UniProtKB/TrEMBL annotation:
The chain crosses the membrane at residues 18-35, 56-77, 97-118, 130-151, 157-177, 182-200, 220-249, 270-291, 303-324, 336-359, 371-395. Keywords: Antiport, Cell membrane, Ion transport, Membrane, Sodium, Sodium transport, Transmembrane, Transmembrane helix, Transport. It comes from the Bacteria. This is Na(+)/H(+) antiporter NhaA. It is a multi-pass membrane protein. GO terms for molecular function: sodium:proton antiporter activity. The gene is nhaA. It is found in: Cell inner membrane; Cell membrane. It comes from Spinactinospora alkalitolerans.
Length: 417
């Protein structure tokens, strides 16, 4: 293979969701082993090492750079993919778009209620009610790609939509209930620059002049994107929301004279970097939870609430909310899917990790034992959810393979009409 073909072949390989999923799972496995080994201290020192300009409020730990910075690239791709689905694919049908959105809302409310029901009257343990609300989209999509190669593409779109709405809801919960101070000026600045980003995407006026000029577009878009992200981070809102917003603003239709639209071009360019670099590093930094207190966590109401909320609450909320919605509204489940597919996906949504761990930190800053138990609860619940979901989805994938259903597309998510 020539030197030119080798990078191209690697790029095509990394555009496969299953490959990115294996790399992310490998990163998480290394993190767990490392954090619980005799070298656990070195792991903790590495991910808590801080660097960056303090003047921009960006003197962050390596873990924060991975979760807030690198992961914004992944969220940009997801937002971009959802925009394509809303314009050209599965979600352009409002009756189908409604279902994962309502499922996401129910999948946040029910786990929180499960947690509150277990911890009511338990003092400060009640502060953790927001922990089981969040779904880790990166891990959930990776597991789906690994175990569900032959599942209908509509299921992946359902999961992406649900997880994005879930993340947005979790960020609102953090901002309202777990953040002491929200800086509105940087937030307004970020929104204003997002408006500029959206205007440039239209390809008219100044944007058209930019496209015709000899100046490469990236010299404008990269600093603009970094400014949007920086201001969003400074506002106190989770900075990955900037990635979602920019992805949703991408133009998905080519203009006259263009060979392809910017949405598909940028996705094709960034997806290998996301799968091969962003997600494995994120997993390496986020998944290193020490198993301290694992034996006593089952007597801690906070840990029990987290586990039941993520595994049982997510399942009941998503499946129950979806089913009831189809009965009382015009919303409909894609005919390519069955309810057993939604059950498997709902269990997959019980993978908490990043945002759940973040809310855990914010919930129990003065209770180290409760904090350790709740973190372990997130880890155990995510593992249980992964095993249960994988079992169902592997069986369903085999079923669809036997009956000749189309493979899950990995370049832009795909859709079934």
């Amino acid at each position: 293979m020539t030197k030119t073909r080798a990078p191209r072949a690697l790029g095509e390989l990394l555009r496969e969701d299953a490959v990115g999923g294996f790399l992310l799972i490998a990163g998480a496995a290394i993190a767990l082993i490392w954090a619980n080994s005799p070298l656990g201290g070195a792991y903790e020192a590495m991910r808590t090492f801080s660097f960056g300009p303090e003047s921009l409020h960006l003197n962050l730990s390596v873990e924060a750079w991975a979760a807030d910075g690198l992961l914004a690239i992944f969220f940009f791709i997801v937002g971009n993919e959802l925009k394509q689905e809303f314009v050209h694919g599965e979600l352009r049908n409002p009756r189908r778009a409604m279902l994962p959105i309502i499922a996401a809302i129910c999948g946040m409310v029910v786990p929180a209620l499960v947690y509150v029901g277990i911890n009511i009257g338990q003092g400060d343990a009640l502060r953790g009610w927001g922990i089981p609300m969040a779904t880790d989209i990166a891990f959930a999509v990776a597991i789906l790609a690994v175990v569900g190669r032959y599942l209908p593409p509509a299921l992946r779109t359902f999961l992406l939509t649900l997880a994005i709405v879930d993340d947005l809801g979790a960020i609102v919960v953090i901002a309202v209930f777990y953040t002491d101070h929200l800086a509105f000026l940087p937030l307004l600045g970020s929104v204003a620059l997002l408006a500029v980003f959206g205007y440039l995407q239209q390809g008219r006026g100044l944007a058209a002049a930019l496209n015709r000029s000899p100046v490469p577009n990236w010299l404008v878009y990269v600093p603009l994107a970094f400014a949007i992200w920086t201001l969003m981070h400074a506002s106190g809102v989770h900075a990955t929301i900037a990635g979602v917003a920019m992805g949703m603003l991408m133009r998905t239709k080519p203009l006259e004279g263009e060979d392809a639209d910017p949405s598909h071009l940028i996705e094709r360019m960034l997806r290998p970097w996301s799968a091969g670099l962003v997600l494995p590093i994120f997993a390496l930094m986020a998944a290193g939870v020490a198993f301290e207190g694992l034996g006593t966590m089952f007597t801690d109401s906070a840990a029990i609430g987290v586990m039941l909320g993520l595994v049982v609450g997510k399942l009941v909320g998503i499946v129950g909310g979806s089913w009831i919605t189809t009965k009382i509204t015009k919303a409909e489940l894609n005919p390519a899917l069955n309810w057993i597919d939604i059950i498997g996906m709902a269990l997959l949504a019980g993978i908490g990790f990043t945002v759940s761990l973040l809310i855990t930190e914010l919930s129990f800053p003065e209770h180290p034992e409760m904090l350790a138990h709740a973190k372990a609860g997130v880890l155990v619940a995510s593992f249980i959810a992964t095993v249960l979901a994988s079992g169902i989805l592997m069986v369903r994938s085999a079923h669809y393979r036997k009956h000749g259903m189309p493979e899950l597309r990995t370049d832009s998510g795909g859709s079934i009409d």
